[in-house]
Amino acid sequence: MNLTKKISRHNYYALLWHALFLALAKNFMDVDTIIPAMMIDAGGTSVHIGLLTAIMLGGSRLSQLFFAPFINNRPMKKGSLLLGINTRIFALVCLVFLFFLSSRITGSFLIILIFLFISVFSISGGFANISYTDILGKSVLPESRKPFLSIKQVIVSAGLFASAYFASRALTLIPYPDNYAYLFIIATVMLTIASAGFWRLKEVKISKQETYEYKKFIRIILQEIRANKKLMYYLLVTNTQGVSLALMPFLIFYAKDVLNATGSDIGSYLIFKVIGGILVGALLFYHSRKIKYQHLLYLTSILALIIPLFVLILPGHFFLSLSFLAGGIVFTLHTITTSGVLLEVSTNENRALYTGIVGAGSVLPVVFPLAGSWIINQFGFSMFFITFMFIISFSFYFIFKLDCRA
Fold it and tell me: What are the Cα distances from residue 145, in Å, to 7, 151, 381?
């Protein structure tokens, strides 16, 4: 099947369908607010938050190193994509039953089961993302990709905003642990509907398909990094700027531990995060063809530096809410730009491989939450925020060396 404008347009809308209902699901299982708050309410500490954040960020990425050769060697990726999303749905169903039955489960065992199901959820997401990136790259025309990523973010943000109110109300009105059980029920239903978009995809089979052996995979990764300087600097950007994705779970812990945040406060932070995503998504949609990825990467790092300054200099719920507003912007910008740059530095033949390389190469965002929990325990939140800003500052040099042209 050759990629035509008709097929590209069909896949464009099928992927937008998935994006919309995934957005409606996300607030009910938000990894920056709902999941960390769930862990704290279940008796978790800063160490648990650090480990949970590392799993959510790193579980999906590191698993891509293992899955990338297997998926890349398959000429068609749709089956792997459906397997990944259906496994995520299964993990959510397990979380529903876990919280309905949590009164019968001891505290430590409850936390272990949370880690187990979140790990399955994260790893299956990494598995699905390899196929998703490959299909997006070869089944949607190049000139439609950047507009797709931008309008996708608008749809995602609008869907998040539509469901943010209901997620925040559930946290406030329904007592623990039933509030999380109902949140995950809604997330399961929405994610199931979202999967229909993947079922409708018309995958394009490329004429040339590279294959890789597991025993040679590490050597191939090193060869690709040496041969493609843009890939090397892309990895350095995702490692330094990528730690920004680990910040908001720790802001939730800060709010709970220092400011005694309630369910209502957590709901407000979620709404502010969503508003930030909507604002930047709308702006990028209208100016997607004019703004270079490199400029967006610079802006992302600047805002990531500002967030901890808000917390250090102006403590309190109001300014913490503004930090989540900026956090939503950072998350959206980082997601759009890193996805777009990956499409630029890779080709149809090696895109699944590069997705695996990037996932496996994103070490710092995985290690940072673990180190961050130790820093908070030993030195407090101020040293944690200073360390975060120190790492982010290195990203500016790597963005400069990346020299994006799109």
Answer: 14, 10, 40
pLDDT digits (tens, 9 = 90+) for 342-374: 777 777 666 666 766 776 667 788 888 888 888
Residue 390 burial (CB count, 10 A): 11
Q: In this structure, are residues 162 and 275 in contact, taking their beta carbons and an 8 Å threshold?
A: no
Spell out the alpha helix ranges (H) of 73-106.
Answer: 78-100
Buried b (16+ CB within 10 A) or exposed e, 277-316: bbebbbbbbeebeebebbebbbbbbebbbebbebbeeeee
Mean pLDDT of 251-270: 82
Helix (H, G, I), strand (E, B) or coil at 285: helix
In contact, 353 and 217? CB cutoff 8 Å: no
Which contiguous run of DSSP H or E holds residue 183?
helix 178-199
372 vs 46: CA distance, rounded Å: 9
Please answer whether residues 129 and 64 qualify as being in contact, where contact means their C-beta atoms are separated by less than 8 angstroms.
yes
CATH class given for the domain over 5-402: mainly alpha
Query: CA 239, 48, 336 angle in degrees (round to 5)?
Result: 35
Give one DSSP letter per residue of 332-389, joined into a string.
HHHHHHHHHHHHHHS-TTTHHHHHHHHHHH--HHHHHHHHHHHHHHHH-HHHHHHHHH
